[in-house]
Design brief:
Elements (H helix, E strand, L loop, with lengths): L1 H4 L6 H26 L5 H9 L18 H12 L3 H20 L4 H14 L3 E4 L17 E5 L2 E11 L7 E8 L5 E7 L5 E4 L13 E11 L3 E5 L1 H6 L7 H23 L13 H30 L8 H26 L9 H11 L7 H13 L3
Parallel strand pairs: 1-4, 2-4
Antiparallel strand pairs: 2-3, 3-7, 4-5, 5-8, 6-7
Helix pairs in contact: 2-4, 4-5, 4-8, 4-9, 5-8, 8-9, 8-10, 8-11, 9-10, 10-11, 10-12
Length: 389
């Protein structure tokens, strides 16, 4: 493990953060099979994250957080996902939300400060809730069907959001909605303790089961006027590069590394009676492990170099959309290839429920469906290349 991270540990803080993520990942790995087999939401994992103050890592320092960089964010998320990818991806949405809010400051100072303090003092968890049954991913540009109507000093919010990761553990959601039956979109900070807010258990997938991405149902939820924390057009928001979304490829590379570690240990130990030694000595096995190493090398070098550029060159962030998208495309596809190669080496026993490889295979597949989608990335790169200079 140390060899995998040695090229990327550049400061004492990097080492401390990686140690934190490693301890958590090792604990989560011990529970992962049972959670997956019994289809349990890993509430204990989130309590462990809270106990180590993990949720405050991206909160601005001025409000008591650690304000880690994007480079540090992907470092710990990749490591955490080796223990439990669902937990890592879920907490990544929370951490990424605060990274984006801290960088752009689109909210009123009082509201943002109050929420940050709740994270620091009470380990409150949030996520954005934007995806809907009729519109699909918000990156595709559809207007939300969730509606907010303002009357007599209050907003009334009604609708249904899907893919609400860690829904059962959330204290707040930042919910998108159309405003007053227009095509203007806004974002509302919704306390899950309010009347009319409920979670409907709809998450029934074979991949990333532990994210518990159930439906968030809002039935005439009454909100104060200042609960409207953002107003924007979809077009403007869609064009703004979001560096924090690199937590997605980081998590799926974590799954791939877990598969890589498993298959290397398997190759060292497994010796059929037809061979004089373990299968690590077989040339074809060595070739496939070399392919795994190459896939990980190219994807991780790209991930960390772009994350470092984002942290080092804030003045260039507006022009980094294509680079961020390319990282996601390369990393998630490489991660899938790594797990596939590893399963071929392990053979049929990789399909047993007791073998983590089958979970890695199911989980890593989900990365292909997280935004931005492969077709969108290719179109973006093509448009950039063909644009008149």
């Amino acid at each position: 493990m140390s060899d995998l991270y040695k090229p990327f540990i550049k400061t004492k803080k990097h080492k401390e953060l990686l140690d934190l993520a490693s301890d958590l990942a090792d604990t989560f790995a011990e529970r992962a099979e049972q959670h997956d087999r019994d289809r349990l939401f890993p509430m204990g994992n989130f309590q462990d994250l809270k106990d180590t103050a993990y949720p405050r890592l991206t909160v601005p320092k001025e409000f008591g957080g650690e304000e880690i960089s994007l480079y540090e964010f992907v470092l710990i998320q990749e490591r955490l996902a080796q223990g439990d990818a669902s937990t890592a991806l879920s907490i990544g949405w929370h951490l990424g939300s605060f990274m984006e809010l801290g960088e752009n400051r689109p909210w009123g100072e009082k509201t943002f400060k109050s929420l940050c303090e709740q994270v620091v003092e009470e380990n409150a968890l949030i996520n954005r809730a934007a995806t809907e049954p009729a519109t699909g991913s918000p990156t595709r540009g559809g207007l939300p069907q969730t509606k907010a109507i303002f009357s007599e000093g209050k907003w009334s919010l009604s609708g249904r959001k899907t893919f609400t990761s860690m829904a059962k553990a959330l204290d707040y959601s930042v919910v998108s909605a159309t405003l007053n039956n227009t095509e203007e979109k806004g974002w509302f900070l919704v306390d899950h303790r309010l009347e009319g807010v409920r979670i409907e258990e709809t998450w029934d997938t074979i991949s990333m089961q532990g994210t518990g991405s159930d439906d968030l149902v809002l039935d005439e939820v009454m909100l104060d006027e200042d609960a409207l924390v953002e107003r924007d057009s979809i077009a403007v928001r869609g064009l703004s590069p979001k560096g924090w979304l690199l937590h997605i490829p980081a998590c799926y590379l974590g799954v791939a590394i877990a598969a890589r570690n498993y298959v290397i240990q398997f190759a060292k130990e497994y010796q059929p009676n037809s061979l004089p030694g373990p299968i690590k000595d077989v040339p074809e096995v060595q070739r496939k492990i070399g392919e795994i190493e190459l896939e990980l090398f190219k994807a991780r070098q790209l991930l960390y170099s772009v994350a470092e550029k984002w942290a080092r060159e804030p003045e260039n962030r507006a022009e980094m959309g294509a680079e961020l998208a390319a990282v996601k495309h390369v990393a998630t596809n490489s991660a899938f290839n790594v797990v596939d190669i590893a399963m071929r080496l392990v053979g049929a026993r990789s399909l047993f429920r007791s073998n983590p490889m089958q979970r890695y295979y199911r989980d890593v597949r989900a990365g292909l469906h997280n935004p931005p989608m492969d077709d969108s990335v290719i179109s973006m790169l093509s448009a950039n290349a063909l644009r008149d200079k």
